[in-house]
């Protein structure tokens, strides 16, 4: 006999949802993520400012200091895919709060170091792992879970948060280093990272279902919160093995490695000492990097808007080609003063700084579906390996040749290669993603 369910029971058993607010909660989550990435960006602003200070105080070569930076950058990238999987297992809030705490510990411990290996341990390993746990894979995870529409724009905004952190911290930290030394600057970063933790814990939520909402722009009722996924490390490796069987993964990884080499590895790490070699004051050079941060915000948000509307492959090709041209001109522009051609370079380069991120994430999403955040984490790992390699090689080249010129020219040619690689990425057709290979339990 069929049991009839009355209207009252139907209402009682229906999923409880909240009426959609005038401003969707997804934008608050995105705002918290933006502030969080700004807080974590402080330590990333320090390497270029501290090379001269550490060289003078401890006598460490620029190559040695560059090696510590390279370890930091490489671990930043290699941690990202596992962090994306950990966010599926334990939630965004727990992983990010823990990562900020680790960054604060690593930054605080650097003030007590007396040997180069301690620099590698604190600055390279501890801070590298902490920052990698809330790297750009964090931005990809937030945009994937909370937004069904405007994903490219949100990705661009969150990517620009790193540049905003640079904008906020670089002038302050350069002034602190110049007036009070490098140790107070490191402590400033530690305090800033800890200050963001309460905002993450109180305001961040893992899924729209946690607050009874659907993702921004989604049709229909809220999707239920998925069950936590166990085996985070296994899933990260499985996603890598699956993606590695496809050509687009290697093209994306190669272009993003060049992206990291030509930005974090080269300009962020070595622009200030290179300008100082030509007689420019450290505070003036740091101010120019901060201006790059200003225009990067506009460029990256615009890139997110473009990514929602145009072919991501062609966008990448244009971005890399323009970046390579600008780097080839830089050795002719460096001098002891800030002159109009240098300002033009700063504006032009700033618009392109990380404009590559939104189209790269979009291509990962197009090619790899629900594993796109983890696959992007592996692509980001290549970005940071490229950055770490050039951070070391740039310092070694300066020690060997007394100039950074060869590094600038080499980076420009690599960017031209990246533009060609971006155009070689094929569009995905349905069913193209191979089945994930099984891993032993």
Automatic annotation (TrEMBL):
Top-level taxonomy: Bacteria, Bacillati, Actinomycetota, Actinomycetes, Kitasatosporales
Pfam family, one: MFS_1
Residue ranges of every copy of the Major facilitator superfamily (MFS) profile domain listed in the record: 28-430
Listed name of the protein: MFS transporter
PANTHER family: EG:103B4.3 PROTEIN-RELATED (PTHR11360:SF284), MONOCARBOXYLATE TRANSPORTER (PTHR11360)
Transmembrane segments annotated in the record for this chain: 26-51, 63-83, 95-117, 123-141, 153-173, 185-204, 248-267, 279-305, 317-335, 341-361, 373-394, 406-425
Gene3D superfamilies the record matches: MFS general substrate transporter like domains (1.20.1250.20)
Gene Ontology CC entries for this record: plasma membrane
Principal subcellular localization: membrane
UniProt entry keywords in alphabetical sequence: Membrane, Transmembrane, Transmembrane helix
Compartments it resides in: Cell membrane
Signal sequence annotation: none
Lipid bilayer topology: Multi-pass membrane protein
Organism field: Streptomyces palmae
Domain of life per record: Bacteria
GO molecular function, one term: transmembrane transporter activity
């Amino acid at each position: 006999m069929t049991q009839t369910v009355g209207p009252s029971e139907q209402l009682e058993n229906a999923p409880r949802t909240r009426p959609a607010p005038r401003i969707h909660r997804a934008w608050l989550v995105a705002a918290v993520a933006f502030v969080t990435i700004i807080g974590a960006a402080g330590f990333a602003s320090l390497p270029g400012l501290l090379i001269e200070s550490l060289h003078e105080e401890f006598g460490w070569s620029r190559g040695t200091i560059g090696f510590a930076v390279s370890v930091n950058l490489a671990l930043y990238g290699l941690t990202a895919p596992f962090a994306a999987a950990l966010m599926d297992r334990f939630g965004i809030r727990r992983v990010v709060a823990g990562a900020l705490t680790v960054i604060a510990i690593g930054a605080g411990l650097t003030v007590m170091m007396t040997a180069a290996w301690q620099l590698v341990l604190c600055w390279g390993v501890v801070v590298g792992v902490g920052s990698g746990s809330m790297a750009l894979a964090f931005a990809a995870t937030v945009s994937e879970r909370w937004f069904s529409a405007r994903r490219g724009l949100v990705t661009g905004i969150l990517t620009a948060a790193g540049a905003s952190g640079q904008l906020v911290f670089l002038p302050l930290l350069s002034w602190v280093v110049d007036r009070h030394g490098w140790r107070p600057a490191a402590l400033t970063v530690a305090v800033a990272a800890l200050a963001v933790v309460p905002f993450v814990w109180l305001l961040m939520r893992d899924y729209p279902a946690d607050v009874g909402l659907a993702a921004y722009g989604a049709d229909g009722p809220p999707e239920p919160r998925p069950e936590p996924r166990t085996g985070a490390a296994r899933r990260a490796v499985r996603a890598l093995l699956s993606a590695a069987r496809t050509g687009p993964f290697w093209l994306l990884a190669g272009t993003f490695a060049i992206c990291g080499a030509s930005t974090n590895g080269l300009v962020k790490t070595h622009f200030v000492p290179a300008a100082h070699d030509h007689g420019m004051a450290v505070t003036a050079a740091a101010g120019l990097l901060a201006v790059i941060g200003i225009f990067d915000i506009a460029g990256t948000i615009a890139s997110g808007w473009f990514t929602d509307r145009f072919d991501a492959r062609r966008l990448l090709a244009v971005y890399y080609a323009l970046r390579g041209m600008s780097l080839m001109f830089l050795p002719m522009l460096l001098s002891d003063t800030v002159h109009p051609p240098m300002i033009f370079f700063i504006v032009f380069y700033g618009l392109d700084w990380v404009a590559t991120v939104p189209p790269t994430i979009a291509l990962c999403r197009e090619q790899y579906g629900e594993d796109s955040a983890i696959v992007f984490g592996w692509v980001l790992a290549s970005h940071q390996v490229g950055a770490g390699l050039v951070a070391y090689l740039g310092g070694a080249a300066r020690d060997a040749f007394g100039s950074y010129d060869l590094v600038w020219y080499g980076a420009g040619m690599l960017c031209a290669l990246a533009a060609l690689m971006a155009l070689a990425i094929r569009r995905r057709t349905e069913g193209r993603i191979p089945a994930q290979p099984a891993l032993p339990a």
